[in-house]
């Protein structure tokens, strides 16, 4: 069995996946646009995505553009990195134009830990456990 993650976006799935591919080392393996739009799609959406798939850090993230999609609220994608510096770098990148829930800091369980929602509505936890047990 394998568990994958599926995220609905409000018209910016392609932009989000391209950003994750460029900045998080992901690899987009599928990107299919709606060929014919139905009346429930906003008219300003140029090329909504029907289904997309990206591999990041050994997991599969899938997504689509859905009218009225809301940002993630009760689930987080967690990125575990090898160094405190990489944690800071990743946190700073993903927090641009996003919403920080917890600043990057040392905790009882991690050398560096922070929580945010990026500009695409995806919620993230960034974690470096170096030296922690």
From TrEMBL:
Domain of life from the UniProt record: Bacteria
Domain PhnB-like as annotated: residue spans: 4-126
Record-linked InterPro entries: Glyas_Bleomycin-R_OHBP_Dase (IPR029068), PhnB-like (IPR028973)
Pfam families per UniProt: 3-dmu-9_3-mt (PF06983)
SUPFAM superfamilies named in the record: Glyoxalase/Bleomycin resistance protein/Dihydroxybiphenyl dioxygenase
Protein known as: PhnB-like domain-containing protein
Organism: Spirosoma radiotolerans
